[in-house]
Amino acid sequence: MDNQSNTSHLDSENKNKIILCSNCFKDEGLKFNAILIGIENDSACPNCKSIEGRKLTKELIIKLCHIFLVKGSVQKFDYGGCPLIKSNSYHYKNSEINIPPWLKDDIE
Q1: Which uninterrupted H or E stretch holds 75?
Q2: Best exposed site among 28, 50, 59, 78 by fewest CB in 10 Å?
């Protein structure tokens, strides 16, 4: 097997790797959205060990962030609107927003 096909196999393996589940979140809004988009799977969550929570891959976590933070921060004006928060993976852990105390653990 050449390096390129080996790398693509690892990428697809990591893409489907479960990282979190809906039960990992304390915030009810995040938990609800995680349930909606999560995968039904009775394996233990690698983070919280729950078997009941809907499981989330990296791709689904990014989608959850977009739904909850970006779409959830839309400011509406008379002639349109725009989100107040934008997600950018290049600025991971270097945020310019003030996160409310009740969301700090979930955002981490």
Answers
A1: strand 74-77
A2: 78
Pairing of strands 55-57, 18-21: antiparallel
Cβ(47)–Cβ(20) under 8 Å? yes
**For residues 39 and 71, is the Cβ–Cβ distance under 8 A?**
no
Q: Please, are residues 6 and 15 in contact by the beta-carbon 8 Å criterion?
A: no
Q: Which residue has the tokens 């933070």?
A: 69
pLDDT digits (tens, 9 = 90+) for 42-52: 999 999 999 99
Distance CA 97, CA 70 (A): 12
Q: What is the mean pLDDT of residues 57-62?
A: 92
Please give, one letter per residue, the 3-state secondary structure of 37-80. Answer: HCECCCCCCCCCCCCCCCEEEHHHHHHHHHHHHHHHHEEEECCE
8 A C-beta contact, residue 53 and residue 45: yes
- The first and second tokens of residue 72, run together, are 């959830």
> Cβ contacts of residue 73 below 8 Å, gap of 6+?
83, 84, 85
